[in-house]
Recover the amino acids of this structure.
């Protein structure tokens, strides 16, 4: 994609920031979020993205142009507590407000999550886009799954109301040097903390950030009216036990993987890649190559220089280790709360 005017929501997020940086090389990229942390905004602007401070749920886009060619809606709310009203206002209503403002775009990608699927008893079940949806539990964010299901419904409606081609992409376990579930597990291992997983096995379809960056344009090209829905995961099926074992071999640290069964959660999060491969072709980064690069790029100064855990890694660890934990590992969309 070259020469396009692109809007990205939540551009400081785990997935969105590297994607914005990638797209800004050859396009005019704008990013909107609350930007409660000025350092986040400065970081985004430093890679060539024009920013505006916007509360997506407010519907006030007075400072935001409406002539974008493409919209990548990655911002989301993932927070503790049972405030479903707030989660729906941000994730569902906010999506509608963004798409209404950008109704003249050529296409929009709305990032959803594999957490929208109804949990299946078979850990090796590969979820297809036509599988039943259900309110799955998420760590530190009990309202996440249901509000993302609502987001999808709003996005589908907007596509038809505004004749706006939309693709809904259900993200799995994304990862790269900027974060993601495998990255947080690596942080835990190097900090000497146990890696808690909810089942054994508990397989995922992890996807590297580089593949996300290169596949985004093809997915936008598949946007349609009515909406196209597609799983966005990798081609390999890997469990936390496997990738943590590989991290141990790469770092010389022995991972402690603790299985804490959590009834009602996903026993596995494998996504069928058939529809996505038909759109994007195969992934370029295999899981071992991706995890090896993750270790090298996230810890370029060596493992003894590990900083104390913060941000999402610390939040997830706290969610897993509290006594009343009834949570599930994220499906990996990794988008950060709207700032």
């Amino acid at each position: 994609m070259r020469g396009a005017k692109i809007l990205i929501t939540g551009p400081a997020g785990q997935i969105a920031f590297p994607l914005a940086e990638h797209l800004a090389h050859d396009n005019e990229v704008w990013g909107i979020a609350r930007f409660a942390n000025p350092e986040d905004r400065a970081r985004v602007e430093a890679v060539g993205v024009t920013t505006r401070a916007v509360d997506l749920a407010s519907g006030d886009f007075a400072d935001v142009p409406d002539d974008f060619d493409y919209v990548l809606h990655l911002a989301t709310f993932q927070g503790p507590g049972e405030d479903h009203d707030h989660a729906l206002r941000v994730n569902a209503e906010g999506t509608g407000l963004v798409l209404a403002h950008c109704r003249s775009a050529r296409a929009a990608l709305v990032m959803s999550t594999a957490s929208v699927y109804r949990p299946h008893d078979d850990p090796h079940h590969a979820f297809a886009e036509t599988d039943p949806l259900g309110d799955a539990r998420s760590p530190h964010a009990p309202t996440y799954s249901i509000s993302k299901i609502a987001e999808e419904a709003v996005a589908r409606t907007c596509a038809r109301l505004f004749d706006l081609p939309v693709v809904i992409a259900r993200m799995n376990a994304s990862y790269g040097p900027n974060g993601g579930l495998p990255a947080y597990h690596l942080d835990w291992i190097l900090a000497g903390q146990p890696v808690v997983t909810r089942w054994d096995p508990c397989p995922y379809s992890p996807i590297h950030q580089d593949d996300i960056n290169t596949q985004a344009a093809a997915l936008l090209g598949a946007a349609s009216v009515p909406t196209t829905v597609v799983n966005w995961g990798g081609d390999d099926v890997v469990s936390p036990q496997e990738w943590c074992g590989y991290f141990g071999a790469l770092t010389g640290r022995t991972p402690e993987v603790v299985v804490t069964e959590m009834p009602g959660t996903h026993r596995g999060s494998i996504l069928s890649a058939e529809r996505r491969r038909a759109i994007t072709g195969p992934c370029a980064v295999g899981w071992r190559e991706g995890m090896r690069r993750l270790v090298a790029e996230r810890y370029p100064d060596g493992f003894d220089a590990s900083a104390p855990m913060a941000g999402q890694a610390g939040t997830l660890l706290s969610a897993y280790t509290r006594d009343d934990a009834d949570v599930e590992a994220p499906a990996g969309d990794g988008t950060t709360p709207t700032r």
Notes: The longest strand covers residues 107-113.
